[in-house]
Amino acid sequence: MDERIDRFIQSLVEQSTPERTAWNVERLTRPGKTGWNYIDGCMLTALQTLSEITGEKSFADFVESVLDAYVRDDGSIDSFDAEKHRLDDINEGRVLFPVYQKSGKEKYRLAAETLHRALKAQPRTGEGSYWHKEVYPNQVWLDGIYMAMPFQALYERHFGQGDYSDIVRQIRTVRDRMRDPQTGLYYHGYDYSRKAYWADPVTGLSRSFWLRAIGWFSVALTDLCEIVTDADAAAEIAEILRDLMRSLRAYCDEETGLYWQVVDQPGREGNYLESSGSAMIAYSMLKGARLGVLDDEYRGLGRKTFDGLAQRHLTFEDGRMGLDHICLVAGLGTMGGKERDGSYEYYISEPVVSNDAKGVAPFVLCYSEIRRLGSEA
Question: Is 143 noted as a catalytic residue in this protein?
Answer without folding.
Answer: yes
